[in-house]
UniProtKB/TrEMBL annotation:
Its EC number is 3.1.1.-. Keywords: Hydrolase, Lipid degradation, Lipid metabolism, Plant defense. It holds the Pfam family Patatin. Gene3D superfamilies: Cytosolic phospholipase A2 catalytic domain. Coiled coil: none annotated. The active site is at residues 58, 203. GO terms for molecular function: monoacylglycerol lipase activity; phospholipase activity. The lineage of its organism: Eukaryota, Viridiplantae, Streptophyta, Embryophyta, Tracheophyta. It comes from Rubroshorea leprosula. A motif (DGA/G) lies at residues 203-205. This is Patatin. PROSITE patterns: PNPLA. The keyword ATP-binding does not apply.
Amino acid sequence: MAVNFAKRKMVTVLSIDGGGVKGLIPGTLLACLESKLQELDGPNARIADYFDVIAGTSTGGLLTTMLTAPNKENRPMYAGEDLINFYFDHSPKIFPQKSNLRGSVASLTGPKYDGKYLKTMVNQFLGDMTLKQTLTNVVIPAFDIKLLQPVIFSTSDAKNDDLKNARLADVCIGTSAAPCFFPAHYFETKDSSGKSRSFNLIDGGVAANNPTLLAMTQIWKDKEEFAEIGPVDSRRMLVLSLGTGSDKEEETYDAAVASKWGMVNWLYDGGRTPLLHFFADASCDMVDFHVSTFFHCLDSKENYLRIQDDTLTGNACRLDLATKENMQTLVEIGTKLLKKPLSRVNLDNGKLESVKGNHTNEEALATFAKRLSEERRFRQTEI
């Protein structure tokens, strides 16, 4: 049974950052969260049953779709425990590992990867399923390079406008079309009168690599749907935001080096794409700053849980290194992250700092799961 919108005390939100194969990190956290929910509510509990809105960018958009797309029994297509195997099964074919030289040369003359496997795979899984069929509201950003503006795909908009009711497969391909890595994605939608709308999309990470604020904005936009709990502010929102890791502590670049870079170096440096790296990290941090401040100002810090690891180093930082060894490393990073102390961003220096109380991220997820379970039971009681 998916989230029922008839009555509620809180509006619940899940947000998942973009990050390529690093999606294994939030995938590990999501598997943990779902196991905590199952301990409370039984083995059939699924993440989509507990969230009013699930938002995801790029690889986070793929995870969002996997958690909310219905199977033949009208239950989520994937359980939390299936997410890790999904990456191990498909990532090496989405990001086929070539030599560094060949990959770097290809990325100067065209996309590093042709994207054919990704398109085939998501079309095979999702077929003609559309946004309005998801089991709970989703919010997935992309960027339209023809209009030079973000495009926000959402279930609620899709239900109200056929031209916004895109195929989930097209949304997944569009939000994942990272510049330099995959081709831009074109598709059209049509309404019953024959009117059409075209989309020319690249990765949603260029607009919102951390889609938490987008999810919250969608709730304010759809405020009539949540009117029974009164004005929706941070005191009535329960928000979980999951990052895909960053390398802040490694301090990879400095001005002395970057001042000598030309166009090629900004696009390719030792297996990384610095320009995309900077945009993605800046987007994630700015959103975290805004959301943290928002909850802090209304004295509701406990309603916002952001789990991120800013200690990644070396190959673990790469978006497309889909070797078995690196993917296993990313799973281990996610597993270790669960045991690390709960942290919050310091709004002065941008660093993650441990929260007083010696709670781990796993304990924080367990507490969050309990609050989700209590909210769901409240709704079922009211029904």
